[in-house]
Amino acid sequence: MVAAGHGGRYIDAAAAAGVRGVHPRLLVPAGADAFLADCGVPLRANRTLRNDEHRWRLLFSRLIAPVVDDTHDPAAAAALMLGGYRPNTRRSYMSKWRFFLAYCAAHGRVPLPATPATVVGYTLWEQRRRALSPPSLQKYFSAVASAHAVAGYDDPTKHFLLRLCVYGYRQWALEEAGGELAPQRMPLPAGFILRVCDLGLSTPDAHLRVQCAGLVLGFLLFNRPGATACMRSCGVAFSPHGMELQIVDFKIALWTGHERHAFTVPIDGDATRVDKPVALVRLVWDQHRAAARARNALLFADPALPPPVLLFHLAARTTNFWLRRVLSILPLRAPLGGVYQDHSVRSGAATEAYALGVPLPMISEMIGHALLEPTLRGYVRTRWWSSPAAREVLGRFLPSPLRL
Questions:
Q1: Which of 20, 36, 153, 385 is 20 to 30 A away from residue 271, measured at CA?
Q2: Omega into 359 within 30° of 0, i.e. cis?
Q3: Cα separations (Å) of 323 from 172, 327, 379?
Q4: Distances (CA, A) of 145 to 55, 88, 184, 204, 270
Q5: Which residues contact residue 215 at a Cβ distance below 8 angstroms, ignoring those fewer than 6 apart?
Q6: CB proximity list for 165: less than 8 A, separation 6 or greater
Q7: What is 33-176's CATH number, 2.30.30.280, 1.10.150.130, 3.40.50.300, 3.30.450.40?
């Protein structure tokens, strides 16, 4: 329970005897059909809940009610707390929480607060459903843990026996795959980026040209999540020093309280050759301006979209879609045991830059990491050989004496 004047702490009912303003924590018993239906399990229709974000808002408001009801403005307090989750996080948690509720409804278990035994049973249920990989199972556990934390309950997923279940789930998944681990994500080589430049500069398909330019700029920016996808025409300028780029309203920066993203990509000063990556981005930028599109329209959105739609933010994973489309046109054989996907663009830029001699602190800064260790552990392959293509694409970031 939560007692008024006790700093929002959860306390037991016995300890709250005689205290005004005591509100019980949300308890969801087994078989609570109405609650389960409101949170998206199709037990009855509810036209007010159109998507998982709406369902999470409803669930969240019920979970935090014991705390916000003890404030002078409960609605404002609830809105403030809800803003602590990004929209994608709210949708993700709710979609995963619904599967946990479905298991509890099917087996008569109490979902909130859940016992470790309930989560063990849920793990078995997911194992038989055969829909989740071991990393995905951990994400589903995170949704369960988050709901319990918000409601003020102990996290049932932290029990030691749950760790054994996770290890067992991994072993089972490995055996199901015939003892073979998943392919390793490989860094995208700089040579492929030059091929993308050639494709973008020569194709008559305006949308493909835009996607190629976005993918190339994403490589130059070490694919900061969403940075290229959210780039607007007014956030790009060309000067004698390079491409000046900024993102004024980058949502992750706003959410974390950081400054706007602003960076300059140096232009190759060798007048004897064409700087293909910059030339492609410049071509798309010039065509955007020639078409008289709005200055605050997204630079790498589909040019055929209506003008109002061009103002909407693209998803941070848009670069993954660009990569898949370009790979379907320009096939690239991955090394034995590897695959190109997701963070291959980011890992490729970091790995090629490291092999070229770009200082690791600079690579870490470009990726957006505060520490060097995550960069070295997750994105840099230290045994990668430098290449002429890497020097053409990323040599611009080398300290001056190393460019010779």
A1: 385
A2: no
A3: 32, 6, 17
A4: 17, 17, 29, 50, 55
A5: 193, 196, 228, 319, 322, 323, 326, 345
A6: 119, 120, 123
A7: 1.10.150.130
Residue showing tokens 């399990």: 41
The reply to whether 190-342 shares the fold of 33-176 is: no
Question: Which token pair is 254?
Answer: 């706003």
pLDDT of 38: 52
Q: What is the SS3 assignment for 249-287?
A: CCHHHHHHCCCCEEEEEECCCCCCCCCHHHHHHHHHHHH
- pLDDT for residue 42: 44
pTM across the whole model? 0.69
Domain boundaries along the sequence of the chain: 33-176, 190-342
Q: Nearest-CA neighbor of 362 among 328, 334, 402, 335?
A: 402
The residue among 359, 344, 348, 347 whose CA lies nearest residue 397 is 359
CA distance 318 to 299: 13
Q: Tokens representing 51?
A: 């998507």
Show the tokens assigned to 22: 């005591």
CB 216 within 8 A of CB 197: yes
Q: What Rg value do the Cα atoms of the chain yield, rounded?
A: 25
- What is the model's pLDDT at position 349? 94
Q: Give the pLDDT means over successive 10-residue stretches in the chain (404 positions).
A: 43 45 58 50 50 80 86 90 81 88 90 92 94 90 91 91 92 85 88 96 95 93 76 88 75 56 78 87 94 88 84 76 93 91 89 93 85 88 92 88 47
- In the DSSP assignment, the letter for residue 50 is -
Give the burial class of 259: count Cβ atoms within 10 A of its Cβ; 0-12 exposed, 13-18 middle, 19 or more buried: exposed
Please give the CATH number for the structural domain made up of 190-342. 3.90.15
- For residue 358, count CB atoms less than 10 angstroms from its CB and return exposed for 0-12, middle for 13-18, buried for 19 or more: buried
Task: Quote the CA–CA distance of 207 and 195 in Å, as a whole number.
Answer: 17
Looking at residue 10, what is its pLDDT?
A: 42
N-to-C CA span, the chain: 69
Nearest CA to 208 out of 328, 331, 326, 341 is that of 326
